[in-house]
Amino acid sequence: DTDDKDDFLDSFGQKYNATWLTQVRVLMHRSMKNSTTAIFTPLNIIKSAAIGLMMGLLWFQMPYTERTVTDRVSYYFSTMTYWVFDAMFNAFMSFPQERDVIFKERASGCYHLSAYFIAKTASEAPTRLALPCIYMITSYWLAGINNNFAVFVTSTLCTLLCVLAGESAGLLIGALIMDFEKGITVLTVVSLSLMVVGGFFVQNVPVFVSWIKYLSAFKYAFDASQQLVFDKPVPCDGSGVLEMCGGESEGTVSPEEMIEWSGAQGSIGFNAGMLIVLFIVPRVIALMALKRQKR
Question: How far is residue 273's CA from residue 262's CA, in Å, rounded to a whole number?
Answer without folding.
Answer: 20
